[in-house]
């Protein structure tokens, strides 16, 4: 029986397994089976901790509920950093993902601030299937159009809408995620700017569907909103699960994300009970 931990950041939830001491036979099919909310434990992302490479304190491997691998997950980054920091008695750790290193620091009040690195703004960084202005991507569906796109280690497109409650995210999300202009699919954000320092956001996540919160999506939203001149470079982003504080730092273009972490429960699972 293998220990696991169920964690979340604003309701964006994760099953966390520790493979730092011994490698675990985690296939995409097995990750998807464990992530299933009816037949498994259930989560938005499946996280495996692996031995730290040089220059980092832990390697975090991220899989979506469909088993596909993700390059970034802001809420999971804060959760994993909190675990490793508590183990080490430290206030700052570096989490490495396939997208790069993410430094995270402990703040007062149970908050954690992650440096999610620079937003990548070129069309082939997102990536898009063809050369285009990432500030005005040629894409429309029903009531939404003209998204801005960037990469935060994974592809994001943000649609700015006047009334978020009028948007059928569950219908539009999957179609836009799989739009031909996104060769690797994309995370789709629907954002309503409430004021120059406050945005309301609902995310449709690539491979996961609608989630209560999305850290990398919030990062992409502040970048795209500031690029459009809709907000400043610092704003509170309110999602169904709660608030994150975002700052797109002018000095180096890095995006800082501040928010809470939580452990919902711990338990054990039998890997052999799930698809190999």
Protein architecture, described:
With 276 residues, this protein is an alpha+beta fold. It has helices at 28-35, 74-88, 169-177, 215-227; strands at residues 2-9, 12-18, 45-50, 58-63, 69-70, 92-97, 100-107, 111-118, 140-141, 144-145, 148-151, 155-160, 187-195, 198-205, 209-211, 234-239, 242-248, 254-260, 262-269. A hairpin with a 5-residue loop joins strand 17 and strand 18 (254-260). It is globular.
Task: Name the features.
Diaminopimelate Epimerase, Chain A, domain 1, two-stranded antiparallel sheet, 41% strand, 4 helices, 17-stranded mixed beta sheet, single chain, 276 residues
Please provide a brief summary of the model:
By secondary structure, this protein is an alpha+beta fold.
Low-confidence stretches: none
Structure classification: alpha+beta
Helix-residue proportion: 10-25%
Through-space gap between termini:
16 Å
Write the layout of secondary structure elements.
Blueprint: E1 2-9, E2 12-18, H1 28-35, E3 45-50, E4 58-63, E5 69-70, H2 74-88, E6 92-97, E7 100-107, E8 111-118, E9 140-141, E10 144-145, E11 148-151, E12 155-160, H3 169-177, E13 187-195, E14 198-205, E15 209-211, H4 215-227, E16 234-239, E17 242-248, E18 254-260, E19 262-269
